[in-house]
Design brief:
The complex is a heterodimer of chains A (about 260) and B (about 850). Chain A is of the alpha/beta class. Chain A has a 6-stranded mixed beta sheet, sandwiched between helices. Chain A is globular, with a radius of gyration of 18 Å. With about 850 residues, chain B is an alpha+beta fold. Chain B contains 24 helices and 23 strands. In chain B, a hairpin with a 6-residue loop joins strand 15 and strand 16. The chains are: A alpha/beta (about 260), B alpha+beta (about 850). At the A-B interface, helix 2 and helix 4 of A face helix 1 and helix 8 of B.
Chain lengths: ~260, ~850
Amino acid sequence: MLQGMSTDTFAQADVPATAAPTIVAVAGLHRRYGEGAAAVDALAGVDVAIHRGEFTAIMGASGSGKSTLMHLMAGLDTPTSGTVTLDGVRLDELDDRRLTELRRDKVGFIFQAFNLLPVLTAEENLVLPLTIAGRKADPAWLESLVQAVGLGDRRTHRPSEMSGGQQQRVAVARALVTRPAVVFADEPTGNLDSVASTDVLALLRRAVDDFEQTVVMVTHDAASASYADRLIVLADGRIAHDGPAGTTEEVIDVMKAVAS
Amino acid sequence: MRQVALRGLRARPLRTILTAMSVVLGVAMIAGTYVLTDTINKSFSEVFSQANAGTDVVVAPQKVDKAFDGDPPPLDDRLVARVRGVDGVREAAGSIQGDISIRNAKGARIGGNTDLVLSLQPKPLDPFKFVAGRAPRAADEVALSSKAFGDEHLKVGDTLTLVGNEGARHYKLVGSATFGDVDTVAGYPAAIVTLPTAQALTGNVGKVGTISVVAADGVAPERLRASVADALGGEKVEVRTGAQDAAQQTKDLEKNFSFSRTALLVFGAIALFVGAFVIYNTFTITVAQRTRELALLRTLGASRRQVLRSVVMEAGLIGLLASVLGLIGGLLLAPALRGLLKIIGADLPATASVVALRTIIVSLLVGVVVTVIASIVPALRATRIAPIVALRDGLTAQTTVSRKRIIFAALLSLVGGGVLAYGLFGGASGTGAAATLGGGAVLVFLGVALFSPQLVRPLAWVVGAPLQRFGGVSGRLARENATRNPARTAVTAAALMVGVALVAFVSIFAAGLRGSIDGAVDRAFTGNLSIVDKSGFGDTPPALVGAVGQVPGVKAVSALRFSEAKVGRKTSTSSIIGIDPATLAQTYKLKWKQGSDATLATLGGDGVLVDTGYSKHAKIGDRLTMLTPAGKRVTYVVKGLLDEGSDFGLLGGGLVLPNARLAADFDAKDNSFVFLSYAAGAPATATRAAIDNLLKQRFPDTETQDREQVKKAQAGQINQLLYLIYALLALSIIVAFFGIVNTLALSIFERTRELGMLRAIGTSRRQVKRIVRLEAVITSLIGALLGLVLGVAFAVAISQPLKKEGFTLTFPVTTLLLLLLAAAAAGTIASLWPARRAARLDVLRALAYE
């Protein structure tokens, strides 16, 4: 399973011939923070394509640029140079209003924490992106999400009345409710114990397998990454590895290889 | 998004109510003012329509010129016969009414400061229904409005004392009457007497106030009105139908009350202005605290406009809640305001409270609009939150004060100062000047408020130093907390600053006024006693002067009276002061610019004295032509020049004429002041006792005052007004107080984790409380200091143009220091609840709090 695991070989990985169509295309992406001597290159030239219907994990040490890459792909941050194309749309060509609409209609987000508005119930939080857009949820889709999350009789509970795992599962469902082109998850299990983490990751997996969603997850946890189809590792603002994710042990090996 | 705004409010009911409170009071003031004035108007208009119930046409004296404040002089009662002779008139009768005092057998006054006398009219003009006894027939008979009759436990056959133009007289009580179906006349007790008696009591022998006319069968009021008007062509009268007359009287009355109403509304506006600061601050804080929540919404696709809308909607809902509460509060406040106005002598009637649609609309609109406007800046700030913030930690963004803002603040203060200066020296007068001054003050307040974040650190250092000394580590932390977010502390303090500045300003101004009047009395009043109306607002009967002059030991009695005139081509009126040329110099030391006391004797029938306060350019021999309130056009020759106005003198600022001229040309017969001096060698105590005895018997509404009592009475009147203003400004200070509570509560919410840490490392609950309390004290002292400085600055500025009128600036240091102490006390009280909340935090949960 570890064939071709040389860190440098895959630095500029090509899309495998059998790949599904590209949903997010990143080309020549640079992101510099600060100016002059204090300037830091968070991303120093990244080209990558995220495939539709795939579960991609992005890993890397602190400061490797993994979060920056995700923020740029989601249109939350603006690159210093390079382009991001999401579902056929160049993000740099969008004004704030269009970008907002894109986030609303084509992107789903899951954060490490503080995903839910404390004043709304679980179900209200779940459908919030639709509410914002002034749309109604498709009842069948909503029902299958509620089922998948296992929300059951807790639909009317406030976030403060739910466990962290439950909150995070609602956050996942919320990210899926608009059937976005891609779901970005930023350390979604960072604040959870292992049981709750498993539930959330299984749910993300299901989103890909059963609901045909595309998921991009930033994580530093090898076990989490093992739920993904594909593993991208960043180091010093560049892609250091790109290949199938494999098992937890395999992920750990990749990370060791990158670090050395 | 609406959901988010609504839920946010419902999830934090306490905060919502607390925030709303800052607008509630201002709205309540405005609603209360409208309810009060509408109620007053309604009760009067009821009286007017009752009075005109059986009347088809009313003949009233024509107003000479709309510039005059007072009523035109009454009509000659010979007109009644002429009206009666007009074709289509079935009955016509004159009537007259006025203010008197009604006293019971014990000599105590019935009612408050206002009793009325009404003349009886023949049926069917008569609006009275006699419920006991009968109508008065003889000159010494009286009937009383039935409420007073009952309240005083009177019975037919009792004796009542009526004090009118000729002093106290006894009358036989022959009946009790209602006015239409009402048992009072606009809430006041009324004595009903025959027309000749009413004429004598009001000092209008041979005169009638109005003539009421009943049409013969089949004659329409409008037609009758036209024929009466024709018949009286050339007379200075207005002829109206009964309905028109009631409407006109109501309108006149509304005009009279419009000043009080505007004044009260101004205090409502001040409270709202202060409330806007609190709203602004609350929203700034809550937006900052919800940064992450708002960023999350943005990542989920909420547009900037949606974020803006959600914040503004939250504000709108709070404003709506506040307006509704304010409206209810206004209903409760209206009677209290009425009580306040009573203090300054405006004894107003009351029926059931009137809530006009206009009151509801204005209250709702004002509350919502103020809240929304105050929230716009924080709401715009909310839209600038980048979605990515949702993914980051450590959010409480430090507010840095930009250079631009400082420059803008300085500019705003300067412009405000300029507008103030223009209002003071620009020559505008009356409402225009007041509006300019108000606008200037608002700009200065805003400018200083914007600039004040710069002042928070140094001021906190100053006021915090002693606190730190005594408060130890709590004091130090409190000081740090107060300066941690200078903008927040500054706005909280600024809300208090406005109220404190105004209180400081009026107390300094009042102190100057008191001092100046004291000085003027000391310099000018050379008599032994002054005789004034007990209420401090009314005139004294003309008969008093002659009667007091008879008392042994009295050398000279000199009366002063006031009127107004339109001089030359001026559109506004000038004040006319009436004096007794023969006796004035024996009780009052005139300050002559040209002439001497001997000039007084030369005034004769056409002489006038001109004060520098009226004109600096007048010369001896100038001829002044003027229109009087009696409708006469008269010309006087300048015989002397006074410099009274430079000394805040009693006679300052006007034209001085003999009393006889005021009586003849101006129809001014009542005296405002009566001064007297004792003959040489007369025993002071005995003479005064004799005078007091005379007054008690014949003029029970008046009293004597010696020089110190005169000063005290003058100061007392100023103080009454001052306390009234304090009471009204208290509203704004209470609003600021809510602002402190709110800011503290929000800050504590924000610092939950920190407080948990403090508690975890051993800070006691008491220490936590003290930290919060001292922070509140520092904040309120900063506000009070800024307010004091501004108040002093305003007072100094406004005293400049008054200087030439002899106004001397004095600083009531004790009052101002008390104000500081009161602010600190208010801060302590405001901190009680937030401090208790902070102390109650559960340590573990506070630490886990995110």
